[in-house]
Amino acid sequence: MRLFNTLTRKKEEFISMIPGEVKMYVCGPTVYNYFHIGNARPFVVFDTLRRYLEYRGYKVTYVQNFTDVDDKIINRAEEEGISPEEVSKKYIQEYFKDAEALGVKRADIHPKVTENIQEIITFVEKLIKKGYAYEVNGDVYFDTARFEDYGKLSKQNLEDLEAGARIEVNEIKKNPMDFALWKAQKSDELAWNSPWGKGRPGWHIECSVMSTRYLGETIDIHAGGQDLIFPHHENEIAQSEACSGHPFARYWIHNGYINIDNEKMSKSKGNFFTVRDILKEYDAETVRFFLLSAQYRNPINFSRELMEQSKNALERFYNAKKNLEHLLENAVEKELDAIEKDLYHRFEKYRQKFIEAMEDDINTADAIAAIFELVKEMNATVRIEHSKQLIKGSLDLLMELTGVLGLLTKKEDTIDTEVEELVQLRQKARKEKNFALADQIRDQLKERGITIEDTPQGVRIIKK
Ligand SMILES: [Zn+2]
What we know:
With 464 residues, the chain is an alpha/beta fold. β1 and β2 form a beta hairpin. The two termini are 36 Å apart.
């Protein structure tokens, strides 16, 4: 598989450190609110990368942190009159609700900053000892000038960064680009004891510490949104490599931005949507489909039009699945004949196409296109006369490929016991030759986008 590595700005062949195993770290949310659609993209695309690696036989160890110490959490706690712990606990639970709805599997480990304070202190002490960090008035800063490779991820050198840096009113730092590893307590906010007095960790240090603690000094893949390249990931590299003397992550993978109606998402523009809001209007799987409809590095535009397109596209997949299930119930068992074998081989070419797309830097747009072609061909060729074996094979193939993308996972019984009841009522009406009522129910269902077909094998429900 080839992955675009931000570190080299090239698509590279992916080779894991240990054959058959992948160690992967994804920067997680700061838990002070419901997450927005921009955050949802990395969760979904890196979940898909993980699913694909597992599909290819890798054992993936996946770590995604929760930032549960942050100014935003402290501010939210003050606003709501509760403790920062209560704020983060609440939004971690809410994260799991939305992530699960979007089909994002749980990480193997979801570490929190508050559970790693001692490890963070030890890490910072080591950096001071090695001469990469210094303490001033209870703050500890990373000394960027001491780390020669500073800027290697974002491709900026220290002089240019300093020239472009806003002049901060912070006389105590040696260098404008130096960043806080530990912040001294200012008033009575959340703080822990440390060798430098009471305080709390800076933001970047947590990911260096947790990645090292749970995955080792060097990992295979470190991933996150493009907005994290600088300064967050640049600083993670500096801290980690200064501390261990080894490369921190071998492949740095970053996803592109989400625009809203072709504009950048921002609170001031009022186009800042949480996933929770969007789920009031759209099914979660439609949101996932939308997020995978573009290759992950390309920008993606969130608009009503594209959401409607995603909804319709997903319905076509579901209709194909239902159609095959319906055929399967009624087909007969017999050996595959030559024609059927040939047909199945044709279907399998789309598996190859799907894999080729995913191998090319997880091109989910092309992978979805391959499934579309498969569905089109299956719809045109698979018939009730075919053997159960062929129909089952076709259905399995469809579920295999959509499963890698985390799609077609909805259970049928979630669609509408109500619809089911109406259909049964109509059947009863037909039996009693009350065709006026039967037709009325049919029209009523049509208004909901549900078409009913009477086939010799029974009633077929088609949801548009
Ligand atoms: Zn991080």
